[in-house]
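--- STAGE predict ---
source: upstream dedup step, 1 unique chain passed
mode: sequence only
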Amino acid sequence: MNEKPDYARDITEIRSMMERSSKFLSLSGLAGVMAGMYALAGAFIAYRALDFNPGDLGTATDSSLWKIVVLALLVLVLALGTAIYLSWRKANKSGEKFYNATTKRVVSAMAVPLIAGGLLMLAVLLKGLVGLIAPFSLIFYGLALYNTSKFTYDEVKTMGLVEIGLGLTGTFFIGYGLFCWALGFGVVHIVYGIYLHYKYER
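--- STAGE serialize ---
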């Protein structure tokens, strides 16, 4: 006796295949956790070792400021490198190609707000408005996440809005800019990384 075709199962499988082909699902939750840890370590070093005061809107001539810039770039490189490696490893384990058309769309969606934000922060730095760098980085990173969310997990959109909210808070309360930065790039990354790991990777 022939079994009746299971149309519901077929539709579910087709939908799953379409989603995997149109969304970047190789995003690693562990990468978010590691990025958060790098950010918290960077914020601690900036505050304790380099005496960084985001409430200072004076001139950007202090040599310690450039140490902050180098520290921020180091945190960025570590976070990006870890994210790329872990996402590549996750894609390989699932038998998928890491760099594909969807990956290109993700990079393109993130590039515009990140490049615009980077140039604005450079201008702010050169003008000596040091206290605005941390909140601006949160705002433009949040915009990049929000813009990219349609190509990956839905939770990324909420994360983007949280980052934007923290950035705006830091803009109004300059003295708490580093604290907001640590919350956004540190705590939020860790929380969302753990959530994504347990929801999608276990």
